[in-house]
Amino acid sequence: MAEPQQTASFGGTPKVDRPIGRSIKRGMLGRCPQCGEGKLFRAFLKPVDRCAVCGEDLHHQRADDLPAYLVIVVVGHVLMTGYLVTEVMYRVSPWVHLAIWAPLSVVAAILTIQPIKGGVIGLQWACRMHGFDGSDEDTVDPGRGGPLA
Ligand SMILES: [Zn+2]
User: Fold this and answer.
1) Nearest 5 degrees, angle CA 135-CA 15-CA 30?
2) pLDDT in tens, 76-126
3) Cβ count near 63 (within 10 Å)
4) Which stretches of 17-144 are assigned E, i.e. beta strand?
5) Ligand 1 center to residue 149 CA distance, Å?
């Protein structure tokens, strides 16, 4: 594994480079975005709090609803294309469409949501969002920007 590169900065502490594409890819593979070796999930859709290999804090993730929206966009477009192609080529009844596309959409959503959530966590980590920049966001008051009273 290549060593992380230091980027030059002025007026602050130097920050280790976090390539967005690599981080998203590692997250989608269910691996820690920092080292690419530790597991990102301890159970289905349940991220670990800390990487078991490199010790990177991963509890800062706030994927929230974004993975679900992305699954709807991706799976919806793919299955809608399949539905339209099937309808144009074979002219099947609506019941056949329902029997094909309803279970297929459920299975596709279940298969894609965890990799997409991992990718979102990788993106947040690479962009240093939600405390991934080293600050402890849990102790900062978001309304005032200062520490919690
Ligand atoms: Zn790690």
Assistant:
1) 75
2) 999 999 999 999 999 889 999 999 999 999 999 999 999 999 999 999 999
3) 20
4) 41-43, 46-47
5) 33
Query: What is the pLDDT of the chain when averaged over all its residues?
Result: 85
- Residue pair 30/111 in contact (Cβ under 8 Å)? The answer is no
CA–CA dist 124, 67 (Å, integer): 12
Taking alpha carbons only, the member of 50, 67, 68 closest to residue 59 is 50
**Ion ligand 1 — residues with CB < 5 Å:** 32, 34-35, 38, 51, 53-54, 56
Q: Which residues are registered as beta bridge partners of 47?
A: 41
Distance of CA 63 from the midpoint of ligand 1 (Å): 18
- Cα of 55 to ligand 1 centre, how many Å? 6
| Residue 2: DSSP 8-state | P
